[in-house]
Amino acid sequence: MTIEAANWAYAEDFVEEDRVILEARDVADELGCVPVLPGASRAIEVLAKAMRATTAVEIGTGAGISLTYLLRGMAPTGVVTTIDVEPEHHKAARRTIAAAGFAPERARMITGRALDVLPRLTDGGYDIVLIDARKSEYPAYLEHAMRLLRSGGLLLIDNALWHGRVPDPAQRDKDTTAVRETLKAVREDERLTVALLDAGDGLLTAVKA
Fold first, then answer.
1. pTM tops 0.85
2. Which of 12, 28, 97, 158 fits a disulfide with 63 by CB distance 3.0 to 4.6 angstroms?
3. Which GO-annotated molecular functions does the record name (predicted)?
């Protein structure tokens, strides 16, 4: 194992995950959805707590792992609007947040295609937008995220390294290209202060001016 790989593995395991999250990861495997990895999950919680977030949009619910981390970081009255095309994902996510001790009204779950749902959400109404769904649609999600975020709001994009494919110029498949284009757009947007964290599968973080 290289030094870089050893450092990554140590950081991923630095804070042990509890039973609720570990069971949700098993459910995610059964459902065939890939959740946010531990290092990025914890970073999401820390960032949400640091900004005392009360409103968030999550694009891609899965089994409710990142949703739970968001809720743990947000203010006690915080609400996450979470979007997923699969009803079974929302059923699993409801069980996960209930096991974590959160009331059902803390998560507004909308089942549908994200690009159909996002236009109905309020401009400038959210502290956080977390993108973690269909990679080919990342550029379109970004456009909506910039509209939805308030001034000072936080943009989070998971899978920003996409299993090491994004940094490799030889990788030009549709999903990798879409993620790469999204990162470029974020980096070049003068409204955003940006950092790319090597946590999980890469977590792009940016604050909107």
1. yes
2. 28
3. O-methyltransferase activity; S-adenosylmethionine-dependent methyltransferase activity
List pLDDT tens digits, range 31-70: 999 999 999 999 999 999 999 999 999 999 999 999 999 9
- Give kind and range of the element (H or E) at residue 123: none
User: Do 49 and 71 form a contact (C-beta atoms < 8 A)?
Assistant: no
Neighbours of 191 (CB within 10 A): 12
The DSSP line for 143-197 is HHHHHHEEEEEEEEEE-SSTTTTTT-TT---HHHHHHHHHHHHHHH-TTEEEEEE
Domain ranges of the chain: 3-208
CATH architecture of 3-208: 3-Layer(aba) Sandwich (3.40)
Helix (H, G, I), strand (E, B) or coil at 22: helix
> Rounded to the nearest 10 degrees, what angle do helices 138-148 and 174-188 cross at?
30
Looking at residue 1, its pLDDT comes to 84
